[in-house]
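Bumping with the actual sequence this time:
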Amino acid sequence: MNKRIVLASAACALILGACASSDQVNEAANAKATGSAFSQSLHKEYVDLAKAELAEGDRGDASHFALKAKEAATGKSVAPDDFKIRTISGSAGKTLKGERTRLISALGGSEAKRKPAVAAKAQGMFDCWMQEQEEGWQSKDIKACRTGYEKAMALLTPKKKKKKKKASSKSPYTVYFKFDSADLTQKSEGAFNNLMQDVQKFKPKSVHVIAYTDLSGNADYNAKLAEKRAAEIQKKLKGAGAKNVTVEAKGAVDPIVDTGKPNQPNRRAIVVFKKK
């Protein structure tokens, strides 16, 4: 065959292919979109992709997106591209497979129903990302498609607000008394003020007070002193708004420091907030 004829035939084939792709894109663009708001938005997304690929001379992908646009225009269900038509390996392929699963889940969610245009944008940009990633050489285009997809997905899958952990009281509290007295030490006066603020803040259902003495003195005296200390703490707590304040006077039992000499750590009251 004459070489000129061969070249001419090849040129005609190229021209006819270009014309066919152009016609497909025009048909898709001119198709009247019906169906749901999502289908209509998806039609527009695929028309835009088809036009972009045609402008780049990628007739195959231009035809592919034009076909999807026409299907969307009729209201048909059009799924995101899958790996039967795209060859993407390595970490990029793994990422896209995971994102396709996430996208399909989002498209079936309530946010997608409320935001059909955003849902269509997410699907269109995902297909764009897959197509550009398969070509693998236009990093700016890959990034642009991926960014568009991620922005749309952020609107479809808003981050759940972390529930603030409820503050908890510091119960049980321990306060200390002066020697042979129901008065608190100067340091414990400040601690007790904080305790009373916590009563107002946490509003415990009940409060239990356990009062102790040190090991000096006889058992009867220590028992009465423990009662006085418990009663004094009870009075203060009720003044702060505490309800159901019960007391227990233990005297010199359960010492922190086991010595008969007057010792401050043993002269204490333990205040417990209870939920019941």
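The tokens above came from a reply further down the thread. The CA atoms of residues 211 and 249 lie 5 Å apart.
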